[in-house]
């Protein structure tokens, strides 16, 4: 058994669970605070459950690849010959940076998707319809959020990869 790969896998699993649970819980609380309470939506509303599930799926999908840039950063720092810092401190530093960037971006993507969609459908009040348990409106609104998440994921991870401390490569184009 390759112990290094095993421990690397355990680290990746731990990061995924910890970040996933924390971000999903925060998202759920925000959805409840910003939408459920604002529109006085009852607990047994199926349309709201569909909508909030879609937002949670969108967040989980967008955050699913964050562990790769985090682990790449730690690996790049660790592999430097003259590195004399703390792997733990630098790992937390990059984790915090990547979490900050991705959480802000996820919030912007979801809020912007909802905002633009509600502007484009002026004659429908989506959240009033969701409050009235209109499942069709809920599904359409949810699909818009999930679809936009599918479209922006690669761009988001390209932005995160820009912060990974890869070594400088010689350029032969000069």
Describe the structure using short key phrases:
174 residues; mainly alpha
Pattern of helices and strands: HHHHHH
What is the number of E strands?
Answer: 0
Structural class: mainly alpha
| First-last Cα distance | 46 Å
Largest sheet: none
Global geometry: elongated
Structural description of this entry:
The chain has 174 residues and is mostly helical. It has 6 helices and no strands. The mean pLDDT is 86.
Give the gist of this structure.
By secondary structure, the chain is mainly α. It is 75% helix and 0% strand. Helix 4 runs antiparallel to helix 6 (135-161).
Write the layout of secondary structure elements.
Blueprint: H1 3-36, H2 46-63, H3 67-78, H4 87-120, H5 126-131, H6 135-161
Helix pairs in contact: 1-2, 2-4, 2-6, 3-4, 4-6
